[in-house]
Amino acid sequence: MNKHAVILASQSPRRKMLLAHLIDDFTVQAADIDESVLDNETPSEYVSRLSLEKAQHIFKNNPDAIVVGSDTSVVINDCILGKPADLQDCINILSLLSGKQHQVVTAFTVMNKVKMITKVVVTHVLFKTLTQDEIIKYWHTGEPQDKAGSYAIQGIGGKFVKTINGSVSSVVGLPLVEIEQALKEVME
Ligand SMILES: Cc1cn([C@H]2C[C@H](O)[C@@H](COP(=O)(O)OP(=O)(O)OP(=O)(O)O)O2)c(=O)[nH]c1=O
């Protein structure tokens, strides 16, 4: 599919694994950018901006490449939940998600020197009710540490999920249907 060099602007092993479902040949470069939320920024605006900044950060040194940047946040009551800093943060985050529906909001940017496409994909996830003991035990598996919202649907965290409405690949880090379409458009 790709006759142009494709670079994934990410340090995430999940995004690398997902993009490999679409493209045989690509390289990875982590885009180290400031991920602070701006005043009055909505969750969709936030993840869109970060996906664009990650892509642009890598594109500026690779102007002949197609660059893919992405960002994922877990959102409840319009509150953006990032990765947990420590056990207490994980308890706070998973207690908020317990027994409720939240959104996983992923944005991606696919760009080359002629086109730039940014899209947001929202997936609704309903959690069962969690006990504090369950949350602490989960923390000690090591899984929540580098995950937005302190869980991984593709791992042990899958046992907390009652229903999901949307894109599973988007929750894990890259919405594959939409990315495939965007790559086609950029490669046209
Ligand atoms: C909710 C959820 C998140 N995640 C992951 C996806 C992302 O890798 C991570 C969200 O953090 P991000 O900050 O979006 O991405 P990242 O730091 O891992 O990588 P980079 O910024 O370099 O692209 O959480 C899961 O793997 N499973 C899940 O169920």
Automatic annotation (TrEMBL):
Keywords: Cytoplasm, Hydrolase, Nucleotide metabolism
Cofactor(s) listed: a divalent metal cation
Catalytic activity, EC: 3.6.1.9
Active site location: D71 (proton acceptor)
Record's catalysed reaction(s): UTP + H2O = UMP + diphosphate + H(+); dTTP + H2O = dTMP + diphosphate + H(+)
Site (Important for substrate specificity): R14, T72, Q154
GO terms, molecular function: hydrolase activity
InterPro entries noted in UniProt: ITPase-like_fam, Maf-like
Cellular localization per UniProt: Cytoplasm
Function per UniProt: Nucleoside triphosphate pyrophosphatase that hydrolyzes dTTP and UTP. May have a dual role in cell division arrest and in preventing the incorporation of modified nucleotides into cellular nucleic acids.
Family: Belongs to the Maf family. YhdE subfamily.
HAMAP family: Maf
Designated name of the protein: dTTP/UTP pyrophosphatase
Originating organism: Psychrosphaera aquimarina
